[in-house]
From TrEMBL:
InterPro entries: ATP-dep_Glu-Cys_Ligase-2, DUF403. It comes from the Bacteria. It holds the Pfam family Alpha-E. Residues 1-298 form the DUF403 domain. This is Alpha-E domain-containing protein. Coiled coil: none annotated.
């Protein structure tokens, strides 16, 4: 597979997952701030923006400002609208690899983005976020139903799961900043789409240990950090069918395997006690894996130096 095509598929997976996860996080947190009269809006909004890696700029920060920065800013790929536009742009560059249904899904979603601000003004933010989640779910379903399980599918799924680890770690950091309250765990589980599954698993027992265990270590819930790391590790292994006699073949496999092992063999109580460091390492892991995957599989270009009419 051409490195250009592999890179486009990888970033389609990352951007679609980023749009969905950002929409989930914003939906729950904005509703929570609106429902709680005791919430200090400026402090809560700044904490959310800090976790998402966005600079709020000068002046007071309101929910509307958060919505503009993380929801509707079409110039920034970390926003919902920006991520969906970036996913469509990457799909445009690999039309021969993605199915026509996948392209039509991303293209029709992109054509609906100019109406996003009007949709928010007329129907509210919840309607907009529900539309984003539905479009991302359609894209995920079409990916599973219409792509062969070849290298292209592996790169797309790899990108999706690396982004999922990063976004779940950022989501858990909002709990850390909230002081570890029970309402915060409730917010986290709903943001992850995990609330109903968590209730069935733990019979309604909501405490720090169970919630952390579910979001970090659960093997069956696909949005848990452990499940996403395991899926990414499987994709990397399939991309290197001949690893040799010793260890693993690539730096990316070593980084992901080390992170997965560090979670798998630690108890929930130990993880909660060391939660800030655990989340920091996970975010660092995602950055390192991204760099390692780019070095191994994607095209690397260097600047051309022109010396008196010749190329150096």
């Amino acid at each position: 597979m051409l490195s250009r095509i592999a890179e486009s598929l990888y970033w389609i997976g990352r951007y679609v997952e980023r749009a969905e996860d950002t929409a989930r996080i914003l939906d729950v947190h904005l509703q929570r701030m609106a429902a709680d009269p005791w919430t200090q809006e400026d402090m809560a909004c700044r904490a959310l923006l800090a976790v998402m890696g966005t600079d709020p700029g000068e002046g007071p920060v309101t929910s509307a400002r958060v919505m503009d920065l993380l929801g509707l800013d079409d110039r920034h790929p970390s926003s919902v609208v920006g991520a969906l536009a970036a996913a469509r742009e990457n799909a445009r560059g690999c039309r021969e690899t993605v199915s026509s249904e996948m392209w039509e899904c991303l293209n029709s979603t992109w054509h609906g983005l100019p109406n996003a601000r009007r949709r928010v003004e007329q129907q509210g933010v919840h309607s907009f976020f529900r539309w984003v989640r539905e479009r991302c779910a359609v894209m995920a379903g079409l990916t599973e139903a219409t792509m062969s399980r070849d290298e292209g599918w592996m790169f797309l799924v790899l990108g999706r799961n690396i982004e999922r680890v990063d976004m779940t770690a950022r989501l858990l950091r909002t709990h850390e900043r909230a002081g570890g309250s029970i309402p915060s765990w409730l917010t986290l589980l709903r943001s992850s789409g995990a609330w109903e599954t968590f209730l069935r698993t733990y019979r309604g027992s909501l405490d720090d240990r169970h919630a952390a265990e579910f979001l970090l270590l659960d093997r069956l819930f696909p949005r848990s950090v452990f499940a996403a790391l395991s899926t990414a590790e499987g994709c990397l292994a399939d991309l290197e069918p001949d690893p040799g006699r010793a260890g693993v073949a690539t730096d990316a496999q070593r980084i992901v395997g080390r992170a997965r092992t560090n979670l798998e063999f630690r108890g929930a109580d130990e993880l909660i006690g060391d939660l800030p460091a655990v989340l920091s390492r996970l975010e660092k892991t995602c950055s390192q894996v991204n760099d390692a995957v780019s070095r191994r599989y994607f095209r690397q270009t260097t600047a051309v130096n022109w010396v008196r009419g010749a190329v150096a």
